[in-house]
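Before relying on records like the one below, remember that each one covers exactly one chain. Contacts with other chains, cofactors or solvent are not represented anywhere in the record.
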Amino acid sequence: MMASPAKKSAVKAAKLPSVGFGFQPAASGHHFMVTIGGKSDPRVYLSEHLHYDDAEERRKVRFTLGHDDDKLRCILPLLKWEAIAGAVQTEFNQRLNGLKLTAGRWLKDQTAVSRLLGKELVLLAWAIEEADPRDIPAAIQNWRGLAPEERWWLFTMTNAATGHALNGKGRGWRKAVRFALTENPTSLQPAPESRSDMLGLLAEDPTPYRA
């Protein structure tokens, strides 16, 4: 029996070398980057890029000079990043394992993330960027309760309206995402209707949530 085109495509993709969490530069340059500021700058920068430079030093220089400011999607305090990093790594590696791709880990400076996983990561970061740290476990659980396709949709809608790290912070869809993921009731296994309620809330006009 011949393999289906979709299966052939998946097998071909699995053979490509990957960087970080599922990012395959040979397939597409579109990716997200997680940059940890270090001791002098205890913040973590999440940015989206359409092209990839395989020279680490050039990536750092471009970022430092501010050439990628318009690509910044979120800036998190290091402590908030550390509160979600382990859960996100576990979630992503389970998915990568299912696709026969190499597992990833967060590096001390920069870590590339594939386009789709990057969208999911930024969505969670948006939910906690202005949230009380005590609400982060609820945000992680509600985020886990969403299917990948739901996370992609929420990212796309939010990014279109308020996707810049600074200019979009605390407004419109960004504020609605925080409310939906941190303040909604959560359980170990979110019920389908709870997920529908959350998506329904965000699908409504987010104007009431504007700052």
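The first helix runs from residue 5 to 14.
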